[in-house]
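[job 4471] stage=fold_predict status=RUNNING
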Amino acid sequence: MPVARTRSVALLGLSGSIVEVEADLGSQLPAFLVIGLPDAAIGESRERVRAAAANSGCPLPARRLTVNLSPATLPKHGSGFDLAIAIACLAAAGRLDPGSAGALVHLGELGLDGRLRPTDGVLPAVLAARRAGVQRVMVPAANAAEASLVGGIEVVGVASLAEAVSWHGGDVEVVAVDPVLAAQPLEPPLVHSGDLADVVGNPEAVAALIAAAAGGHHLGLYGPPGAGKTMLASRLPGILPDLGLDQSLEVASLRSLSGLGVGGLSTRPPFEAPHHTASAASIIGGGGRLIRPGAAARASHGVLFLDEAPEFPTSVLDVLRQPLESRSISIHRASAIASFPASFQLVLAANPCPCGQWSPKGEACTCAPSVKRRYLSRISGPLRDRLDLELWVPRLTTTATSEGAAGRVSSAEARRRVELARAVAAERYRQTPWRTNAEVPRPWLRGAGGMHPGSRATVAIDRALERGGLTMRGYDKVLRLAWTLADLDGAGVPDGEHVGQANVLRRAPLWAA
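[job 4471] inference complete, writing structure tokens
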């Protein structure tokens, strides 16, 4: 058969497109060409495929082979096309059933000995195949468990090219080989394994943390070293509700695309805490021709924690401004645009000054006022304006510790409160695409929400808006937080007290100093 076809998947961000892999066997001088906008890794597949086929007992004919990856205008990246190219070439040479080859999507990298090696991004690729109506996909044996997380599609795991050819009806001797194993999944650091009951003597901070979890709000924590900012932030994922199936698949797909491995679907929200030396690309995502997600995308449906926030370069912090508004990340390159989800909760933690000793109570601080202002200004005003809560976390005293020990709240109890509040919000927004108060847009607040400027409940923040103490974005964030406080209290609609409390939580006292 001179032309044979099979299919594979090209990933761009989390989006996948079906690629038709065509192989033509010509009568010209022996050659092996791959066309259709391949990258360097796909171009090198010619040598991998030829060697793998020869070492598997089904060598390619000494004729001109032309492989086309269609559509030709779509960029293709990575070595995951090796198996599809090999199957299409062998089908064109008559070594296996072309009808069987065309019915499957093939994913996997070939070794020179014919064994199949695991590849990154198998989970989002299989999801894309299922969305395209594909019923069966062939992957390396090491990726079979990951691919099987997608329901509604049959997964065929093979360890070698010979096994794949035999499955398609080819006459080849299948020798048992040890499959190439995938690296063990990198587990996220267990910084969020503690219980909220470990926090003693900070009832206001615990209440603010529960409010942030209930409404999906972004949070800023400020205070001296040792006050417990990191401890509070690391407990936030533990009080968030479990992830749904679609959310778990999205989180696992992002890990797969990042090369971190997928051990299974996790129902717990992710937690990302990059070091302050991280670059903008590592936070937001990027790369050359192969665009990978950054920490902000991997934190989707969970928490992105930036400890020692003023130590991050301002340019790195400011790349988060657009994703915080749109809840998505778009990375533009000359040849393509990759999109990733960014529905994370941002938590910033910072000392009030370089020495860390400033406090609203006037404790000794060795920093000049200009030094303190310059230090805090590394967190830009537009980024702060996107935070829903800013909280001062004081250093604990012996008295506060002993008084707070009796009123501790466990993570399980806090999660129950958060789930109840989120259920109330979900019922309120059941006819809309939103599920948390932080997602509600301005028109709803002005319309169905009834919390427009001039209403009885908004008198206090109306004055702040007129004086310039609040931006319009900040005004809306106060209203969203007021709805969350009302949900936690079991009130149907926020009143003036909820709005006033939300306005107090809007700004930490150090910014007025």
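[job 4471] summary: The domain at 196-438 is CATH 3.40.50.300 (Rossmann fold).
[job 4471] exit 0
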